[in-house]
Amino acid sequence: MIVSYADPRKGHHGGIYAGGGWLYVGKTKQAECLYALASSGREIHKRTIDSRDRILRSAAVKQGILRPVDTWKHKYLMPLDLAMRQQLAPLAIPYPKRCAGGDTKDTPPVQGGEGGSTPTPALQAPQANQ
Fold first, then answer.
1. pTM of model > 0.70
2. Which residues contact 114 (CB under 8 A, 6 or more apart)?
3. Among the four residues 22, 78, 110, 121, which has the most C-beta atoms within 10 Å?
4. Are 23 and 92 in contact (CB under 8 A)?
């Protein structure tokens, strides 16, 4: 089985996995590994703080200087054969919905248009009859 994750903090919901037939099994547990400075919002990994001083981290959280950041992710499974798919099927739940609002944040600007009745311009100018 292959396991993959989609990070909603990065604007991902896992639509590509849903389209590929992966099984959605829900959200991961909150990982207590990322903190944000209350003053600036700058994110700092727990290991960075702990390498300096664990007591400092504990005190900073209690004083409101640091706050834990919500770090869960969507979890998807890809069974590698039919027997495994049948075994994992009871764990599957409905796919999460993409946020409403049209284009996603990660859509390149070149693809940001909504389409329409205007035809795509030709690659070359038409040749005059000779």
1. no
2. 102
3. 22
4. yes
Q: Of 64, 57, 68, 56, which Cα lies nearest the Cα of 32?
A: 68
Domains in the chain: boundaries: 1-29+72-100, 30-71
Distances (CA, A) of 15 to 22, 26, 50, 98: 10, 14, 36, 8
pLDDT tens series, the chain, 130 aa: 999 999 888 888 899 999 999 999 999 887 666 777 777 777 777 777 766 666 666 777 777 777 777 778 899 999 999 999 999 999 999 998 876 544 455 555 554 555 555 555 656 655 655 5
What is the C-alpha separation between 85 and 91, in angstroms, rounded? 10
Q: Please enumerate in sequence order all residues whose Cβ is within 8 A of that of 15, keeping only pairs 6 or more positions apart, or say none.
A: 95, 98
